[in-house]
Amino acid sequence: MANQRRDKSTNENCHWQTAIGASLLNPSLKETDLRGAYLRGAYLRKAELRKLNLREVCLSFADLIEANLSETCLTLANLSEACLNLSNLRKAVLNQANLFKANLVGADLTQADLRRANLCKANLVGASLEEANLRGANLCGTDLSSSDLRGVNLQNAIYNLATRCPEGFDLAKAGAYLIGPNMLLPQINLSGIDLSGTDLRGTDLRRANLRETNLSNVNLVAANLSGVNLSGANLTGADLREVIWKKAVYNLQTRFSEDFNPIKLGAYLIVPNVSLAGINLSDVDLSGADLRDADLSLANLTGVEMRSVDLCRANLRKTRLETAKLQDADLKAVDLTKANLKQANLSNADLREANLTKANLQGANLTGADLRGADLTGACLNQANLSNVDLRNVDLTRADLQGANLSGTDFCQVDCTGVILDRGSPIAIPHPDKEFAGHHLSKQ
């Protein structure tokens, strides 16, 4: 059976090579879907491949000199050590493509999408990268001599001391990061970047965002990874001797070498239903984490980055969340009883049915948040921003709204019994139907 599968795979690969070779003469292959084709070492010099779907195709060591790949989809394609000299890649999509040691001398990459592409040690001498998007690309050891970099996007791209640029061009000023051994890179955002094989010995990466980053075979000896977010990262084959792991976080999608256990070294596994009561994860990046039904009661999450986190039904009783960034977070039915959310950012968060009894929300930003059905009995909302908040069926009994921004907020169907406003006077609201107009509040 295994031999049959190999024979079938070989036949399919031959079919793809024959089909693409025929495309030089057969215009009917325009916009053909060739996803996942295996074309390692294929001879495609001057081939007409415009607008083809070559997503995840293997073209390593292929001869693509003067090939027309304009507007072609090469997302996640393997073009390592391929020869693309003088090729036409205008507006090509090379998102997360592997171009390690690829030759692109004189290639036209105008307006090409090279986000998070691996261009490590690639030769781009004289290439046109005008208005190309290289956000998050790996340019370590890349030769960009005499290339056209007008209007190029290099935000969060990385380079090292071996990277060569046109005279007078400053990669750092263009938004790229210089990386290498023993460097100070705290809080750097390297999410999703291919760093495979790089040397980061002794590098300070405290609180860095390394979500879904490829760190395979990276030298991280004595690196500081405290507070780092490694969710979905690949660390297989990495040298992790003497690494500092304090408060580093990872999830089930994070890949380590066999038998490596980061928990024993101070890291934390972030998964639904996890029990982390009383834990100190202050200033850690937990953005996008799945913490449904987790127990984080009494935890210290001060200053934590938690954008788009899923905390549905989580236990956050008496948890410290001062200055936490919870924009767009899913907080449905969460228990935040007596939690400290002073100056936290909860803009556009989903807080439906949340329990915020006696929570401290002083100075918190709740702009655009959905609080339908939430319990804010006795909560402190002093100086909080509640503009355009949905408060239908919310219980604000004895809540402190002194100095709060209530513009655009509808108080219909809200229990405002004993609410405290700017003059410090409680207001008694008869509420047989629990309806109260917001403009009445401002007059108290």
Overview of the structural elements:
This protein is elongated. The chain has a two-stranded parallel sheet with strand order 1-2. It has helices spanning 2-22, 438-441, and strands at residues 158-159, 177-178, 249-250, 268-269, 419-420, 426-427. β5 and β6 (426-427) form a beta hairpin. It has a domain at 32-178: Pectate Lyase C-like, CATH 2.160.20.80. Mean pLDDT is 89; it is low at 1-16, 18-28 and 424-444. The protein contains two helices and six strands. It is largely without helices or strands. It starts with a helix and ends with a helix.
Q: What is this structure, in a nutshell?
A:
With 444 residues, the protein is largely without helices or strands.
State which percent range the strand residues make up: under 5%
List unreliable stretches of 5+ residues.
Answer: 1-16, 18-28, 424-444
Biggest sheet: strands side by side, in what order? 1-2
- Radius of gyration, whole Å: 27 Å
CATH class of one domain: Mainly Beta
Shape category:
elongated
Number of strands: 6
Q: Could you say what the CATH architecture of one domain is? A: 3 Solenoid
CATH topology of one domain: Pectate Lyase C-like
Count of separate DSSP helical elements = 2
**What's the main sheet like?**
2 strands, parallel
Could you tell me how far the N terminus lies from the C terminus, measured between alpha carbons in angstroms? 81 Å
Structural class: little secondary structure
Supply the CATH superfamily name of one domain: E3 ubiquitin-protein ligase SopA
Helix content: under 10%
* Rounded average pLDDT: 89
SSE order, as H and E? Answer: HEEEEEEH
Protein name: Pentapeptide repeat-containing protein
Pfam families: Pentapeptide
InterPro entries: 5peptide_repeat, Pentapeptide-BTB/POZ_domain
